[in-house]
Amino acid sequence: MGLFGSSGIRGVVNQDMTPELAMDIGMAIGSMAEEVVIGMDSRTSGQLMEAALVGGLTAAGSRVHRAGLVTTPTLAEAAREMCCGVMITASHNPPEYAGVKFWNPDGMGVSTDQAKAIERAISSHRFKLQRWDRVGRSQVLPDAVERHAERILAGVGESRLRVVVDCANGPASTITPIVLQRMGCKVITINSNPDGHFPGRPPEPVEENLTDLKRAVVSMKAALGIAHDGDADRMVAVDDKGVFLGGDQLLALFAKNYAKKRIVATVDTSMAVDDYIRAKVIRTRVGDAFVSEAVKTSKAEFGGEPSGTWIFPDQTYCPDGILAAARLVELASKKKTLSQLRKPIPVYPTLRSSVPFEAKRRDAVLKKLARTMRSVECRKLDTVDGFRVQCSDGWGLVRVSGTEPKVRIMAEARKKERAEAIMAKLTGVVKGCVGP
Q: What's the CA dihedral at 348, 306, 265, 239 to 10 degrees?
């Protein structure tokens, strides 16, 4: 496997993600881009990684603009006027992780070809380092947050709602409350002090981590709650009754209101989205970079994935949790409460499981799955990311994990008994493939 995962390069600080690697990344990017903007989230390793990256970038001759503590979508917005953007973040990963994401001027993450070019440069150490009198310089970029806020506000209306915002001890505190306040909202914040130890809650915005937000919404009689991950490219919500909105429900709600012809969603997206909206649903690989690419190539009006990634191409191809928060607040201001808006969106029984295998047998398991899954009786087999089995009244997904020696299995149907039957069938097939 290469350096790049589904969303940039990540690893444990000073083990996988070292200052040496960060400097190599900087020299690789600097050899390809004359002008770069760089930002970071609130992790304890941010300044360390920034220093190493800036050193590599300037060694290769790049002009570097340091945006400081910003969200990933803010950094992507600043990259519009540069050759590229580099964001120091491990997103929703635990605090011991560090990472780097890369952005093109249109808000797209790096393509597969660009990622391979960066990896080749790093592995071969073929950097275009400059003479002493041609090394690059760095300077502070002071207005990145304001420019991002202005762009979002230009595309949304007013709102007078009371909103609770959980900033996840990350850079969302620098922009989300400000944007919502300027829309006219009464904003209450929690976990709004940037802290790389994440003392308030883990940075991943899943339901089990949002107990405080749910309580705050109810106790303060707010119209809704907003929660971000560590770098605010994700956004999830809690309705006015303190009920968590799953990613599939938010995806359906956004798609219903912002797309008429086509949307892009990942292969693990609920069929509730297909049932609720009229637009065509195009499914792609799991990962925001793949969603963005598919939105652009298919000219879709919206894209997202159940993890909380939302892409509005009328603004940017970067997943923007702040823009998503503003648009959700705007929707909840139009006659119906968020709990009323979610009510007609179907929720179907969904099951998840996994089957472990010996790490050394990974290639053999992949080959056997490829042969065996094609013989499974179904209406349609989609192999864009793993094996998605489409049935008349449900579906199942079999994917080999990219980070662990496990085969992950997912099943959904309109009735629980049918979901259980699909899960049992796929589990039997997978167990037959991972065995001797």
A: 80
Whether the full predicted model's pTM is greater than 0.85, yes or no, is: yes
Q: Residue 62 and residue 137: Cα distance in Å, rounded?
A: 7
So what's the architecture of 9-142 in CATH?
A: 3-Layer(aba) Sandwich (3.40)
CATH code of 146-342, in short, is: 3.40.120.10
Residue whose C-alpha is closest to residue 72's, from 233, 307, 313, 204: 233
- Per DSSP, the residues of 210-246 read -HHHHHHHHHTT-SEEEEE-TTSSBEEEE-TTS-EE-
Instruction: Report the Cα–Cα distance between both ends of the chain, in Å, rounded.
Output: 24
Active-site residue numbers?
Answer: 91
How do residues 186-233 score in pLDDT, each as one tens digit?
999 999 999 999 999 999 999 999 999 999 999 999 999 999 999 999
Tell me whether domains 9-142 and 146-342 share a fold.
Answer: yes
Fold of 350-434: TATA-Binding Protein (3.30.310)
Domain positions in the chain are 9-142, 146-342, 350-434
Lowest-pLDDT range, 65-69, 266-270, 328-332, 358-362? Answer: 358-362
Q: What is the pLDDT of residues 255-277, one digit of tens each?
A: 999 999 999 999 999 999 999 99
